[in-house]
Amino acid sequence: MASFPSQLPRSPSLLPKVSLLLLSLFSCGGLFDADDSASPRYAAIFSFGDSLADTGNFLLSGALPFPSISRLPYGVTYFGRPTGRCSDGRLVVDFIAEAFGLPLLPPYLAQGQSFQQGVNFAFAGATALDTAFFEERGISDILWSNSSLSVQLAWFEKLKPSLCGTPGECNAFFNRSLFLVGEIGGNDYNYAFFKGKGLVEVRSYVPMVVQAIANATEKLIRLGATELMVPGNLPVGCSTLYLTLYGTPDKKDYDRRNGCLKQLNVFAKYHNALLQRALGKLRRRYQAARIIYADYYGAAIRFAHAPRHFGFVNGALRACCGGGGPYNFNVSAACGHPGSTVCSDPSSYVAWDGIHLTESAHRDIATGLLEGPYTTPPLLPSTTGIPTHSSGLF
């Protein structure tokens, strides 16, 4: 097991502004059966998670901690307007829905929407653990909301009677539905790191975060879900935000191959290893369910290793929208705030606002999940119809 320093290297000039950052940016997740080409593989998709998957719940709630999400340049690439997505365009969940011939998932808090083909419960800033965990550790003052994973599950339970009437109808409906349990868990660590907690302490949270995700997955199975995809964490050592806040002159702290912070990527791998172990236990307990691990880390680390191969000619570490600095990230001029600028071609970047990804990065991750080797067991046959960002995906 790799050793962890008690404290990450940090920039003294930036960390005092972390609370401000959290209040302005941080929080903001046609295919057919091989044997039946006439029927869509899934009738509906139900999504849970945080800002990587939120398609509008946080914005509909008021978005007071992150007002810039309500205006351009958020949404500029695909929608031409802000939709509540923490990106310039579509997210992984959007590309998955499109690949199955389903409409983009409406947010749960939307009024007058039909949820018969799916709904998105994901909420920017959400955590896997409940608020009480952070209160006990002096972290709760920077939480954006209490819309944790358990709250999202409660929303699903409340909605369920409107989706199907009898147990037989529910079984038939959910047997043809895909449940996306995340991405979730990253914010549990983000809040702690940004509050100044050391790497060793935050590492001690990982088993509890993973157990919360596993418990949610198990609860969905008991509520009728039979096919579930559970993503792991991204390579946070390649995050523009972390590279800015925890930059160090010591070259040994960086991966020579990609310029990412090594210890933070080791941390993400630790979370993912524990999550895969937990999902393995669930598979043995619920053999009738299909529980899929989505390797977001593997799908995304490729961009840092060879960004130009995927069309990211401006690299993987510098943000498209930001306020300057080595990685174009400045807590005092976050994307959408005075002093920030936006690049002319977001598709040439991996990082959108320093925390979240561009539509192009989301597309390539989705393609890696659907066509590539980044789901265990594989989600689908190889043909998906998703247009790839680059001419050659692998």
Write a short abstract of this structure.
This protein has helices spanning about 20-25, 55-60, 90-100, 130-135, 150-165, 165-175, 185-195, 200-205, 205-220, 240-245, 260-285, 295-305, 360-370; strands at about 30-35, 35-40, 45-50, 120, 175-180, 225-230, 290-295, 320, 340, 375. It is α/β, with parallel strands linked by helices and about 400 residues long. It has one domain (about 15-375): SGNH hydrolase (Rossmann fold, 3-Layer(aba) Sandwich), CATH 3.40.50.1110.
* Largest beta-sheet characterization: 6 strands, mixed
Count of extended strands? 10
Number of domains: 1
Query: Could you spell the SSE succession in H and E letters?
Result: HEEEHHEHHHEHHHEHHEHEEHE
Shape: globular
Uncertain ranges: 1-6, 11-27, 29-39, 387-394
CATH architecture level-2 label: 3-Layer(aba) Sandwich
Question: Could you tell me the strand content as a percent range?
Answer: 5-15%
Q: Which CATH class applies here?
A: Alpha Beta
How helical, in percent, are the residues? 25-40%
Instruction: Kindly report the average pLDDT value.
Output: 88
Across the major sheet, the strand order is 4-3-5-6-7-10
Estimated radius of gyration: 20 Å
Structure class: alpha/beta
Distance between the termini: 31 Å
Give me the CATH superfamily.
Answer: SGNH hydrolase
Overview of the structural elements:
The chain has one domain: Rossmann fold (3-Layer(aba) Sandwich), CATH 3.40.50.1110. It has a 6-stranded mixed sheet with strand order 4-3-5-6-7-10. It has helices at 18-24, 57-60, 92-99, 131-136, 149-163, 167-174, 186-194, 199-203, 206-222, 240-245, 262-285, 296-305, 359-370; strands at residues 32-33, 36-40, 44-48, 118-120, 177-181, 227-231, 290-294, 321-322, 341-342, 375-376. It is α/β, with parallel strands linked by helices and 394 residues long. Helix content is 33%, strand content 9%.
